[in-house]
Amino acid sequence: MALNKSMHPRNRYKDKPPDFAYLASKYPDFQKHVQINLLGRVMLNFKDPEAVRALTCTLLKEDFGLTIEIPLERLIPTVPLRLNYIHWVEDLTEGQGSSRRGIDIGTGASCIYPLLGASMNGWFFLATEVDDICYNYAKKNVEQNNMAGLIKVVKVPQKTLLMDALKEESIVYDFCMCNPPFFANQLEAKGVNSRNSRRPPPSSVNTGGVTEIMAEGGELEFVKRIIHDSLQLKRRLRWYSCMLGKKCSLAPLKEELRKQGVPKVTHTEFCQGRTMRWALAWSFYEDVTVPSPPCKKRKLEKTRKPLTFTVPEATAAELHTQAASIGSTHSAPSESVTAWLEKILTDLKVLHKRVPCSESELSIFLTAVENTWIHGRQKRREHGRQLRELPRAPPPTNHDSEPETNPAPDTPNTSNTQQAPEGANLEPHSNEEEVKGQQSSERGTDITMETPSTESPCKQEEEQGGSAPQGPPSPAQQFLFKCLVNVKTEDCDVVVEMHWVEGQNKDLMNQLCTCLKNSLFRQVATPVQN
């Protein structure tokens, strides 16, 4: 699942992902790690730590003018995801001036957050680190990018978060950032206890030292320690924030902040490629602007396209001619097609009701309570199969060259041309679309949906006193789905659209759409006898 479209709106990679071909042509160190697939596309093996490191270093050089070094045995950050966090901190600290001061808890060998914040916005950073290797690389990366005036890298003792780092400081910081160790132990790091078994394996390699990826109690306890420090520091920082690797950590941490009476709390999501991260922020200042959390749905769902089929002009005209047989006296073919649809829905015992619509359209609101269309097709196929299997009369015996006039009692009365019962369809389908519809329905007949109900649709009809249900069911009634059917004329043809409203399964509406279409075309092939 690609999540790039859900990146922060200001993320430069949101609508323009890295061009691997261009980067390979410009940077020889990156070119060594790219491959060209059979389609000629330039690909990168994200399970190769060296390839991931080459991409990170190349993007920082190309897009931010930063030159860094990262050891393979330490965490290799992805640039687009870290950039999301920087942009969110911009949102948190909006209106506080450009000379903002921040703390990066556990900056890592790359020192990526301070380098991005300083190069993009001129922010001042205090970057803490407990690991010797990470500390040495972070200092080197700051110095070789001439950022020592903006970034101060400090080595702190193990388990030091904010209190010990700031005990000799009197500066009020605007924010802190943290990418905490996600896992509590080796099993979690390997996905044994923390990864849903139904999820596919990670598409990228997991790098990082022990202190970078594991901590006692995992990220949940780690962030709780930051919350504990913040309760003592309070207004020494305007915003406290951290990034989370597991969504399940978000709710208990927000509950912890609520219990502690923290006045301002918000959260967000970071999206990149197939990776999701969550971030939590809180403040003890009443005057801060709190960015709104993301909607429950990351983005507004695209308007669902309706299921559509077209009744050609000639077919619509024939249906209009036959409309009198069902009591329809409308003047327009679209009205006749609508009347035929209502008759078919009545025969299928699908609840339906005309609803007001625009002058150019006719609309039917329908509620399907029981899957009657699949069973109807099954019955027609079974009926046709039984007809094909009718026993044939034995050949006549020649007694004195005279044909036998009285058939045997057990032999059906047949003629040279066997006649099927009226209404049986023994001929192959003449409409190609109908054949396709039948094939698709055959694939779906293995699935039967039974909806528990105290009364059958037929009994409901009797109580309503009508031949067919004509209105939506009561709120307590079970239903399979509801949809709106619009009928309109386009270029002399009649177009039928089915718009999903709600229900259990959209495939059922697809099946009904096929049934309605086939029934209309079948009506033209076998007109109703008056």
Automatic annotation (TrEMBL):
One of the GO BP terms on file: regulation of mRNA stability
Role noted for this protein: RNA N6-methyltransferase that methylates adenosine residues at the N(6) position of a subset of RNAs and is involved in S-adenosyl-L-methionine homeostasis by regulating expression of MAT2A transcripts. Able to N6-methylate a subset of mRNAs and U6 small nuclear RNAs (U6 snRNAs). In contrast to the METTL3-METTL14 heterodimer, only able to methylate a limited number of RNAs: requires both a 5'UACAGAGAA-3' nonamer sequence and a specific RNA structure.
Stored Pfam families: Methyltransf_10
Enzyme Commission number: 2.1.1.-
One Gene Ontology CC term in the entry: cytoplasm
Annotated GO MF terms: mRNA m(6)A methyltransferase activity; RNA binding; U6 snRNA (adenine-(43)-N(6))-methyltransferase activity
Polar residues bias (residue ranges): 411-420, 437-457
Residues reported to bind S-adenosyl-L-methionine: 82, 106, 129, 179
InterPro entries (alphabetical): METTL16/PsiM, METTL16/RlmF, SAM-dependent_MTases_sf
Native species: Pygocentrus nattereri (Red-bellied piranha)
Compartments where located: Cytoplasm; Nucleus
UniProt-recorded name of the protein: U6 small nuclear RNA (adenine-(43)-N(6))-methyltransferase
UniProt KW keywords: Cytoplasm, Methyltransferase, Nucleus, RNA-binding, S-adenosyl-L-methionine, Transferase
Region of interest (Disordered), residue spans: 377-475
Superkingdom as given in the UniProt entry: Eukaryota
Family: Belongs to the methyltransferase superfamily. METTL16/RlmF family.
Chief location bin: cytoplasm
